[in-house]
Amino acid sequence: NFMLTQPHSVSESPGKTVTISCTRSSGSIASNYVQWYQQRPGSSPITVIYENNHRLSGVPDRFSGSVDTSSNSASLTISGLKTEDEADYYCQSYDSNYQRVFGGGTKLTVL
Amino acid sequence: VQLLESGGGLVQPGGSLRLSCAGSAFRFSSYALSWVRQAPGKGLEWVATISAGTDTTNYAVSVKGRFTISRDNSRNTLYLQMNALRADDTAVYYCATSPQYYDTLTGYYSFYFDYWGRGTLVTVSS
Question: Which A residues in the span 35-54 are in contact with B, Cβ-Cβ below 8 Å?
Answer without folding.
Answer: 35, 37, 39, 44-47, 50-51
